[in-house]
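The following block was generated as part of the benchmark described in Methods. Ligand: flavin-adenine dinucleotide.
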Amino acid sequence: MAGAVKAITIAGGGLAGLALGIALRRRDVPVVLHEAGSYPRHRVCGEFINGVSEATLERLGIAGLFADARRHRSTRWFVEGEPIYDAELPEPAIGLSRYVLDERMAGEFGGLGGELRTKSRARPEAREGLVWAAGRRAERESGWLGLKVHVEGVPMEADLEMHVGEAGYLGLAPVEGERVNACGLFRRRDGVKGKGADLLWAYLEANGLHQLADRLREARCDERSFTGVSAFRLGRQDPEDGLCVLGDAESMIPPFTGNGMSMAFEAAEAAVQPAADYAAGAAGWDEAVMELRRRLRRRFRRRLFTARLLHPFLLRAAGRHALALTARTGLLPFTPLFRLLR
Ligand SMILES: Cc1cc2nc3c(=O)[nH]c(=O)nc-3n(C[C@H](O)[C@H](O)[C@H](O)COP(=O)(O)OP(=O)(O)OC[C@H]3O[C@@H](n4cnc5c(N)ncnc54)[C@H](O)[C@@H]3O)c2cc1C
C-alpha cells in the first residue's frame, strides 16, 4: 500500500515561496506556508520582471496571474542625468507591482487549498520538509539602502528608465494604471536625511541626480507605498547548515545586474520535482535537498558570477564612464549581457 503524502512547510510568502506553494498544490501536495507579514503590502522592488520565460510561469501554474500586466519593451539609460543609450529588450519584461502580484499569488495558493498562515514568523531550522524562502538575511552592518515609492503623472521617456548616479541608481517602471514605480539602490551615506519619499529625493540629490529629483518631486506621490530596506548583504546569504533554501534566502543577486524576481520563480520551478518526490516518498529529504542544490547551482552559477563582477564596477566612477563611453560609441554589448544575466 502506498504511504500517505507528506506535507511541505514553506517559510516566506514572497515570490519563491508562493510560486513553489502554488505548483505543489497543483500536484496535490499538502503545503503549509508561514508568512511573517500579511497581504497586500508594498515591497522595495523595481517591479520590473525581466528574463522569466512564459514556459516557467506555465509550469508553475501562475502564467494567468500576469495576463493583464504591462509588457515593457524599450529602455533608456542615463548616467549622471545624461541620456546615453536606448535599447529594445530582446524579450518583453513584465510590469506589475508587488502590492498586486504577491496578493494575487497568495489568493491563488489559498484557492488551491494551501494553508496560508500570515503574521507567522518561522524559525530557520534544518528539519525534514521545511523549505526556507524567507528572503535575504538580515545583516547588522550593511552599506546598502533600497528605497521605493509609487508616483503618478510622470511622463516616461521609455518603458524603463535607468538613472545611474555617483553611488547608486534609480529605475522608473510603470506598473498598474498611471502608477510608476520609482525604486533605487544606494550606498548609505551619513548626513542624507528625510522622511518617506523625501529621503528618496535626498538620495537622488546626494548622488548627483538633481534633475530627476526635481522631476519626481513634481509628480503625485503615494506616500503609503513608500518602503525602505537596509541591513542586507548582496550575493550568497550563508544560510544555517543543512537548511533547504530558495530564492533570495540562498543568494541575492545585485538588482542592478540581475533579475531577482525571475530567479525566485526559476528557483521555485527547480524545487517542485525534488519536493514532490519527497512528499510522495520517492526520495528522502536529504536526497531531495541535494538535488535542489545541484539544480540551483547549475542554473544560477553563471549569472551570479557575472553580476558579482559587474555590479561593483558599474557603481564606481570608472565603471560609469566605461558604461557611458561604450554606450555612446555603440560598443555596449547590451544583448550579450542581457543573455548572460538571464
Ligand atoms: C532595491 C531593490 C530593487 C529590486 N528590483 C528588482 C527588479 O526590478 N526586478 C527583479 O527581478 N528583482 C528586483 N529585486 C530583487 C527581488 O525583489 C528579489 O530578488 C525577490 O523579491 C526575491 O524573492 P524571494 O521570494 O526570494 O524573497 P522575498 O520576495 O523577499 O520574500 C520573502 C518573504 O519572506 C517573509 N519572511 C521573512 N522572514 C520570515 C520568517 N522568519 N518567517 C516567515 N516569513 C518570513 C517576508 O515577509 C517576505 O514576504 C530588487 C531588490 C531590491 C533590494
